[in-house]
Amino acid sequence: MKKPALVILAAGMGSRYGGLKQMDAFGPNGETIIDYSIHDAINAGFGKIVFIIREHFKTAFEKVFRDKLESKVELCFVTQELTKIPFGSNFNPERSKPWGTAHAVQVAKEVVDQPFAIINADDYYGQSAYKSLADFLMDGSNLKENNYCIIGYFLKNTLSDHGTVNRGVCFADDDGNLTNIEETLKIGWTQDGKISYPTSEGVSYLEKDTLVSMNMFGFMPSYFDYTEDKFKQFLKEEGQELKSEFYIPQVLDSMQKESFSHVKLIPSDSDWFGVTYQEDKPFVIEKLNALIKAGRYPENLWNN
To answer: What confidence tens digit (pLDDT) does each residue in 134-144 have?
Structure first.
């Protein structure tokens, strides 16, 4: 059985950040957040890294990562463009953006034929989460049974001290299989240490150990066959809209309703942190420096 692949969604334009945060330096020797993700993935057992990027920054992106990584792991660079759609499909010619996260994953089909994981380029997920993913993906029974997984983070480990956040709250059955992801908006700490979010009726509360999705998934190659047809259907129904998006959670929801696969919800106690705005950068640098000081990473990530 092949080692699993890690598919990194790095095609975002960073409009809120003010630049390509995928290539911005956060570590003491210019390391990106992606560098720490790849370091953790290789140590966990992943054998291939697939970057989903845009054509107009592909040359610069490849240079940043090939120079330091090509001797350590197999690398692939795939572009997500508006025109990369199934044969016979069409769309509004005035549209300018690709079709979202599920579209980004679909373009990886050309280079992925083994179990694979999905992550965001600008998120730090933690070492133990990659170990859980790798263990799941290298279990041959999951390949045979068409089982997928999602890493669920404890809500308390994903909140910000600087404002509210939106999270996909995960629900599972008694066997630990995902049943639903409910997008919940404006979640934040209260002054007395509880976690709340607004509703039409007032305020509701969530437990600190509520599991939420941070877009870290594990899939088998059969995923591509299923989503090819779903993407065709999506374009037929919504392809003429200028802002429609084809998202991973809606694909998972469809899979479950049609009993195509089981999606195991795997809890992780890892800390998660990410960068959306320039104001987030000092916090991320501080967190990485603390992990280095604690001995979790060498100070120079790739020269040790």
So the answer is: 999 999 888 88
